[in-house]
Design brief:
It is built from 6 helices and 4 strands. The protein is of the alpha/beta class and 166 residues long. Strands 2-1-3-4 form a 4-stranded parallel beta sheet, covered by helices on one side. It is globular.
Length: 166
Protein backbone atom coordinates (compact mmCIF):
# COMPACT_ATOMS: atom_id res chain seq x y z
CA UNK A 1 0.00 0.00 0.00
CA UNK A 2 1.42 3.36 -0.92
CA UNK A 3 -0.34 5.82 1.40
CA UNK A 4 2.27 5.55 4.14
CA UNK A 5 -0.38 4.31 6.57
CA UNK A 6 -0.05 0.88 8.11
CA UNK A 7 -2.27 -1.88 6.77
CA UNK A 8 -5.11 -3.23 8.88
CA UNK A 9 -6.74 -6.47 7.76
CA UNK A 10 -10.16 -7.38 9.15
CA UNK A 11 -11.26 -11.03 9.07
CA UNK A 12 -14.92 -11.99 9.51
CA UNK A 13 -16.46 -14.96 11.29
CA UNK A 14 -17.66 -18.25 9.83
CA UNK A 15 -20.69 -18.02 7.49
CA UNK A 16 -20.19 -14.26 7.19
CA UNK A 17 -18.47 -12.05 4.61
CA UNK A 18 -16.43 -8.86 4.46
CA UNK A 19 -19.74 -6.99 4.78
CA UNK A 20 -19.60 -7.75 8.51
CA UNK A 21 -17.08 -4.91 8.77
CA UNK A 22 -18.98 -2.33 6.68
CA UNK A 23 -19.94 -0.25 9.72
CA UNK A 24 -16.42 -0.33 11.14
CA UNK A 25 -14.22 0.38 8.12
CA UNK A 26 -15.13 4.09 7.75
CA UNK A 27 -13.93 4.73 11.31
CA UNK A 28 -10.52 3.21 10.59
CA UNK A 29 -9.54 4.57 7.18
CA UNK A 30 -8.09 7.84 8.50
CA UNK A 31 -5.41 5.88 10.31
CA UNK A 32 -4.94 2.68 8.28
CA UNK A 33 -5.14 1.22 4.81
CA UNK A 34 -8.01 -1.13 5.62
CA UNK A 35 -8.51 -4.44 3.85
CA UNK A 36 -11.57 -6.56 4.66
CA UNK A 37 -11.48 -9.69 2.49
CA UNK A 38 -14.14 -12.36 2.30
CA UNK A 39 -12.64 -15.69 3.32
CA UNK A 40 -12.12 -18.71 1.11
CA UNK A 41 -15.34 -20.65 0.59
CA UNK A 42 -17.58 -17.89 1.93
CA UNK A 43 -20.16 -16.05 -0.22
CA UNK A 44 -18.28 -13.47 -2.26
CA UNK A 45 -14.85 -14.91 -1.48
CA UNK A 46 -12.61 -17.18 -3.51
CA UNK A 47 -14.09 -20.59 -4.28
CA UNK A 48 -12.81 -23.54 -2.30
CA UNK A 49 -11.51 -26.16 -4.69
CA UNK A 50 -10.87 -28.88 -2.12
CA UNK A 51 -13.44 -30.28 0.31
CA UNK A 52 -13.66 -30.37 3.22
CA UNK A 53 -12.12 -26.94 3.70
CA UNK A 54 -9.76 -26.76 6.65
CA UNK A 55 -8.76 -23.66 8.57
CA UNK A 56 -5.25 -24.10 7.16
CA UNK A 57 -6.74 -23.71 3.65
CA UNK A 58 -8.54 -20.50 4.66
CA UNK A 59 -5.39 -19.08 6.25
CA UNK A 60 -3.29 -20.07 3.21
CA UNK A 61 -5.74 -18.16 0.98
CA UNK A 62 -5.59 -15.13 3.29
CA UNK A 63 -1.80 -15.22 3.17
CA UNK A 64 -1.90 -15.36 -0.65
CA UNK A 65 -4.17 -12.30 -0.59
CA UNK A 66 -1.61 -10.46 1.56
CA UNK A 67 1.14 -11.43 -0.89
CA UNK A 68 -0.92 -10.31 -3.90
CA UNK A 69 -1.44 -6.90 -2.24
CA UNK A 70 2.23 -6.59 -1.34
CA UNK A 71 1.52 -6.62 2.40
CA UNK A 72 4.41 -8.27 4.25
CA UNK A 73 3.01 -7.51 7.71
CA UNK A 74 -0.19 -5.87 8.89
CA UNK A 75 -2.26 -5.21 11.95
CA UNK A 76 -4.69 -8.14 11.97
CA UNK A 77 -8.11 -8.18 13.59
CA UNK A 78 -10.81 -10.80 13.42
CA UNK A 79 -13.90 -12.14 15.06
CA UNK A 80 -14.47 -15.86 15.71
CA UNK A 81 -13.02 -17.68 12.70
CA UNK A 82 -11.43 -14.37 11.72
CA UNK A 83 -9.70 -14.19 15.10
CA UNK A 84 -8.34 -17.67 14.55
CA UNK A 85 -7.10 -16.62 11.11
CA UNK A 86 -5.36 -13.57 12.60
CA UNK A 87 -3.62 -15.71 15.22
CA UNK A 88 -2.52 -18.27 12.62
CA UNK A 89 -1.14 -15.52 10.38
CA UNK A 90 0.72 -14.07 13.38
CA UNK A 91 2.29 -17.49 13.93
CA UNK A 92 3.50 -17.26 10.32
CA UNK A 93 5.14 -13.89 11.05
CA UNK A 94 2.61 -11.74 9.16
CA UNK A 95 1.33 -9.60 12.06
CA UNK A 96 2.35 -6.21 13.36
CA UNK A 97 -0.31 -6.74 16.02
CA UNK A 98 -3.36 -8.96 16.54
CA UNK A 99 -6.81 -8.27 17.95
CA UNK A 100 -8.72 -11.54 18.13
CA UNK A 101 -12.34 -11.06 19.23
CA UNK A 102 -13.83 -14.31 20.57
CA UNK A 103 -11.40 -16.32 18.48
CA UNK A 104 -12.54 -19.72 17.40
CA UNK A 105 -10.02 -22.45 17.89
CA UNK A 106 -11.35 -25.86 18.65
CA UNK A 107 -7.78 -26.88 19.43
CA UNK A 108 -6.90 -30.17 20.99
CA UNK A 109 -4.19 -30.56 23.62
CA UNK A 110 -1.49 -30.32 20.95
CA UNK A 111 -2.71 -26.92 19.85
CA UNK A 112 -3.49 -27.48 16.18
CA UNK A 113 -6.17 -30.17 15.76
CA UNK A 114 -9.86 -29.69 15.19
CA UNK A 115 -12.29 -31.42 17.52
CA UNK A 116 -16.02 -31.78 18.23
CA UNK A 117 -17.03 -28.18 17.52
CA UNK A 118 -16.03 -28.51 13.87
CA UNK A 119 -18.07 -31.73 13.65
CA UNK A 120 -21.06 -29.85 15.07
CA UNK A 121 -20.67 -27.12 12.45
CA UNK A 122 -20.48 -29.71 9.66
CA UNK A 123 -23.67 -31.38 10.94
CA UNK A 124 -25.42 -28.01 11.00
CA UNK A 125 -24.38 -27.32 7.39
CA UNK A 126 -25.62 -30.78 6.34
CA UNK A 127 -28.96 -30.19 8.07
CA UNK A 128 -29.40 -26.84 6.32
CA UNK A 129 -28.67 -28.45 2.95
CA UNK A 130 -31.06 -31.36 3.57
CA UNK A 131 -33.93 -29.11 4.65
CA UNK A 132 -33.46 -26.48 1.93
CA UNK A 133 -36.64 -27.48 -0.01
CA UNK A 134 -38.91 -26.90 2.99
CA UNK A 135 -37.12 -23.92 4.55
CA UNK A 136 -39.26 -21.15 3.02
CA UNK A 137 -42.43 -22.74 4.37
CA UNK A 138 -40.96 -23.81 7.72
CA UNK A 139 -39.36 -20.44 8.45
CA UNK A 140 -42.74 -18.72 8.23
CA UNK A 141 -43.32 -20.08 11.73
CA UNK A 142 -41.93 -17.88 14.53
CA UNK A 143 -41.39 -20.96 16.70
CA UNK A 144 -39.33 -22.74 14.03
CA UNK A 145 -37.31 -19.56 13.35
CA UNK A 146 -36.59 -19.20 17.08
CA UNK A 147 -35.55 -22.86 17.48
CA UNK A 148 -33.55 -23.13 14.28
CA UNK A 149 -31.61 -19.91 14.85
CA UNK A 150 -31.23 -19.97 18.63
CA UNK A 151 -27.45 -20.27 18.41
CA UNK A 152 -27.03 -17.23 16.15
CA UNK A 153 -29.85 -14.79 16.93
CA UNK A 154 -31.42 -13.42 20.10
CA UNK A 155 -34.90 -12.85 18.68
CA UNK A 156 -35.34 -14.97 15.58
CA UNK A 157 -39.05 -15.28 16.27
CA UNK A 158 -39.62 -11.62 15.36
CA UNK A 159 -39.98 -10.16 11.91
CA UNK A 160 -36.36 -9.02 11.99
CA UNK A 161 -33.84 -11.54 13.31
CA UNK A 162 -31.02 -10.44 15.52
CA UNK A 163 -30.36 -8.48 18.67
CA UNK A 164 -31.61 -4.97 19.22
CA UNK A 165 -29.66 -2.49 21.32
CA UNK A 166 -31.24 -1.91 24.70
Amino acid sequence: MSSGKSSLVLFHGVTMSAAAWDGVVPHLTDHHDVVAPTALGHRGGPAALDRPVKVRDIVDAAERMLDERGIAKAHLAGNSLGGWMAIELALRGRALSVCALSPAGFWDGGGHGQTGAVTKLRRMVALVQLTRPIQPLALRSAVIRRLSMRDIACRADGRRCGCRPR
